[in-house]
From TrEMBL:
Name the UniProt record assigns to this protein: PucR family transcriptional regulator
Domain CdaR GGDEF-like intervals: 176-287
Ranges in a coiled coil: none
UniProt domain PucR C-terminal helix-turn-helix: residue ranges: 337-395
Pfam families: GGDEF_2, HTH_30, RsbRD_N
Amino acid sequence: MHYRTVLREGSAVIVAELAVEVEKQLPGVIETTVEQIRAEMPVYHDAQFVTLAELRTSVRNNLEYVMRTLRGTEEPDLAQARATGRARALQGAPLPELLRAYRIGLTEVWSRFVELTASDDHQDLRGLVAATSAIWALIDDYAEALTTTYRDTTAELLLAHQSRRSALIEALFAGGTATEGTLWDIARVLELSLDGTYVVVAAETPRVGHEPLPQIENRLRDRHHASAWRLTPDLQVGVVSMRDPSASQVIIELLRENQTGRIGVSPVFTGLGNTSRALHLARVALSSMMPGTKGMVQFNESPLAGLVASAPEASVQLAHHVLRPILDLPGDDRNVLLLTLRAWFECQGSTKLTSERMFCHPNTIRHRLKRISEELGRSLTDPSDIAELGAALRALHMFPDTSHLPAPRDPLR
């Protein structure tokens, strides 16, 4: 103990003798300390964390321990300081104010020692020095024990809060029965409005355990947008409050900073209870981009891509069903026809623009388009055929690894 290291045997005797005299004044010391703490510290005056009775009890317990220690009747025991530190941490009292209250109490004890050693009966400079050293050593010991316990308790509370927060975020994104009866609690803990306006973001992780959007919650908070996030092995997902019309631009800018991979964003939605559905749409938007690429797509920017991505198996089956005659052609023929058809769609059906993009004569494009129509048995002027071809091309683009496989078995046959 620091306290023991500053007291030699002779000094301890002097301090003990003085402590016996000062202890007779202890009721007055306690009341003076309580009054001074309340006068100088609004958090105690307004009873924000402890009542007046609780404050008086705490001051009495701690000062009685101090006097017993100074009298030498007990080995220094910082259990009371630790108990106070833990109690105040649980109550949320600020640590600086807590330490200040301790200094006020021990300074009041020291002032009584000063008065006693300066009186006509004592005039004891040596006793004053010994008492001063002992009291300030106790202040150091108290502050260290109290601070350590306070911080340990705060860390425990933070860990418990984070664990509960993570569980509530998981329930929010899971949806269904996971949120029944707990949605209000989720909103309160996450500081989100039940009927607010939101978007959900799904960002692809570069590798397991690494955030693609580091510090995104803090960065959004700095711009006055509340959000809640969780990290999974493959995604970092978050629900972000849209507090005002400018929020969309702020969120987009933050997402694009240091972007490392694919990011999907849900449509704007209202009501926290719809978060799980929005997460599905954000994942669909992410899946509409080719793996290995970098970019950001909001679901409503490409409804067809979203529809294809939301049903991979059905979309692949559609692609094979519609495009199988071309997929079965030899490699060069297949690639040329697929590239031509894709370019024709991207050029909005313009033969001229398609020929410019593919660096060939418009008649060559017309010939290829005629062959595509014949191979597939579909018209490039019939809206229903064009719709099916567009969806099939989108599916083939999104799931290219399946183009060489046999056509999926039709479950109805």
